[in-house]
Fold each of these.
Amino acid sequence: MQGTVDGFSYGLVTPLVAYLMACLGGALGLRCTTRSMLVAHSWRAGWLALGSVAIASGIWTMHFIAMMGFTVKETPVHYDRPTTFASLGVAIVMVGIGIFIVGYRGATGTALFTGGTITGLGVASMHYLGMAGMRLNGNLEYNTLTVSASVVIAVVAATAALWAAGQVRGFLWSVGASLVMGLAVSGMHYTGMAALSVHLHGTSSSPGGDSAAALLAPMMIGPLAFLCLAGVVVMFDPLMVMGKPDWRPTQHRPGVPAHPTVQYVGRRPLPRTGRERSHRSSRTPQNR
């Protein structure tokens, strides 16, 4: 028997709030990644770590806010606590690996492709591991083609976001990139949910685990508090807020001058002395 799946039991409230959380985490993470490219190597790791946790926390919070609107009509839905925590850890580790690759190698070529792929796979792994933590009177079944489409969306979105972070542009550039990133992450989530179907068991016993309200609401306090802390760090960093399009990285390569040398072309006139000026003024046509 197939269960009746509803991913919008609260209407548009959960999708909109989830989208805003994905945008917030993406904006903070991208700004921290951009900032890491403008500082010396000793500070770069700290900014990249802050950006990694911000992006992962935003995506994880987005996922479980959206899951609070997920119901199966014929059975209650509970969640396993260790698996749910593990999904957050997987997101932080894999997103961090991708961001560190781009942060140290640059947002071009192989580094961008590798970092974007790892980050996108981390987002998809977080989603499906979180889904594996659901406990209900039934089995979860997925459509392979739709699952593959959701993974592709995650990889493309992550690659585009890391490319935008590597452009070292102003604040509005990162805001626009975060809006696109939030839309792509939300699209990945709901594409993955569209691949889900529930095959119910014949029993009516209560599944193990905790309910969404009892588990997810307290668990989101930590990521939300971290996002607020990251927002404070970004707000009080003048280079993050007052960014200019002509930023340049602080890393100087040997042999490359800071400013191009401009050569003077043509013969430069020599300055005249006071005696020469008085002598030339005293010469008149009558004296010649």
Note: The radius of gyration is 29 Å.
Amino acid sequence: MIELEGVPELVDPVMVAAFEGWNDAGDAASTAIGHLEREWKGEVFAALDAEDYYDFQVNRPQVWLDGAVRKVTWPTTRLAVVRVDNADGKGTPRDLVLVRGIEPSMRWRSFCNEILGFAHELGVEMVVVLGALLGDTPHSRPVPVTGMTSDPDLARTMNLEESRYEGPTGIVGILQEACTHAGVPAVSLWASVPHYVSQPPNPKATLALLNRLEDLLGLSVPLGELPEDARAWQLGVDQLAAEDSEVAEYVQSLEEARDTAELPEASGEAIAKEFERYLRRRDGGPAGGPAGGNATESGSSPYRREAGGGRSRPAKRSAKDAKDAKDSTNGTEETSGKPGKNGKPGNNGNRGKPGKPEADEPKPPPESDSSEDSDEE
């Protein structure tokens, strides 16, 4: 049984989650949640029992010293609450429930049920899960971020793509489906990270996820040093690519493919929407409405109640090297990523490696078998 005696009544709460590991190329998604916690001074109010969900030989505990006292930090998933005092640019507050953790090693269904238990008790109106995958995208172009949902109504009202993916999935896909079955509106935002520079951190991808989250929820996120870090990251990759002619040639081919694919989208309407977004950000107002720039008449998210709604139940909804990579097919977000120069798909340490992406979900490495219980329904 979940008891939240120390958590106050929340205003229009939205849960935003990210998990380190397979769905977190370049640590872009988990870093985004960490940024929100720091900027809005999130207060952790709950943590899942690490014994229930993690293999400590895969995700090892960390020992550290607090003065003269030795302490242990266990790998787990923590929940924090942040209050956005000026959510709509008019002084209206809104609360976010931030979920940050590591993709569990076992009992995925129980894990998702526990997360949903918190969402129910807190009256969460919508769940947004952030993810990042490896893709054929050049580092020198804006990071593609795709908004996905399994709910046809939500896809239509918020200008999202309806998920048609079939194949192996990670905890992001499982949690999104669990929300759908529980009648909780759920969206996943996926950033595409260049496969040839997959090592974390990737501040440019983190920044892209936060910008898309702003548009989705109608919030204005304080970005701090992220824009400067993103520019420095891109300059660093530019220098590394310039030192290898084959890599530089491959990046150029990705740029040409990307520019050709997006040329029809460079319309006057698209430019006007981007300029509108810039003006709102400059004036300190919300960054926009639902994903895709389709704001409501009030300029706020369509999932907003009157203040003081309390913890009501969410309404039910119907419902190797660069040459090898160059020789293969250039892709977009809907095609598979290619391995980097070392022939390996990314480098996220012992937390799992993001595999080749397929549409809205990344594929796991062939040796991955940590989610056998998640595929059962």
Note: DSSP finds ten helices and twelve strands in the chain.
Amino acid sequence: MSDNPLTPLRLGTRRSRLAMAQSGQVAEAVSRVTGRPVELVEITTYGDTSREHLAQIGGTGVFVTALRDALLRGEVDFAVHSLKDLPTTQPADLVLAAVPVREDPRDVIVARDALKFTDLPRGARIGTGSPRRAAQLNAYARSHGLDIETVPIRGNVDTRIGYVHDGELDAVVLAAAGLSRIGRIDEVTDFLSVDTVLPAPGQGALAIECAADNAELIALLGELDDPFTRVAVTAERSLLAALEAGCSAPVGALADLLADGQIVKEMRLRAVVGTTDGTRTVQMSTTGPVPETYDQATALGRELATEMLAQGAAGLMGERAQ
């Protein structure tokens, strides 16, 4: 990183519309707190060019590797990731300098005829590339007498919503945060309660990563860090790591803050693991004091994972456990 205040900071980003949108928002925020211009450096990842299903090519971590390689080679100063795409093991030479305030972590439905999930017709075909979403939607449908079929899909937001507009699918499941960041939240026909579908660990949050030896940049980017978001996603990702599950395993987790009026009292961590067909799930939660350190947040996730494993969670992840 050059010390010249006019030298642009180089932000590495994937080329997708969503990645460019969220990187652009971070670039503006970084410019605001540092007074430095920020230029976006577009990087193509294997996950962007491969047509295989994500679960087959190693899960969402394939989107991260090329950005991290560019950071380590010094081609970019920092990178922005969707936190849910990050593998749970952090490389020693890179650091998460900031986890900004999280957007809505929920999953949403975009369905034909503006239908809600529970109003979809019998035999409705719902597209999702996520074993986690498929597992929970199928489990909910089974317990509520709904008849749905989950269909594996890939592609960007336009492609996925296109399947509904073309009549190929009745609905698709997407993340609220992604649609919000690209200005398409008004196309949502139903917000899925976290009681119905728990999001992916870290969903809705961004991770800003840079080299671990760049103390000056770490301090600057740290201005964008939100401590509550950081401890919440740390607990969620610690659970994922303790389950020894990869990014594409059918694991949902959400840590949220329980407040009494304006005063935050406790943190609740909920998690679910299930078979993709929804026939078997293990769902549990724990509540405790709001973690004040990284170690306390990871302990919360580890403890809940241990309880879930005791209830047979590992057997439900099948081959997807990495």
Note: The longest helix spans residues 17-34.
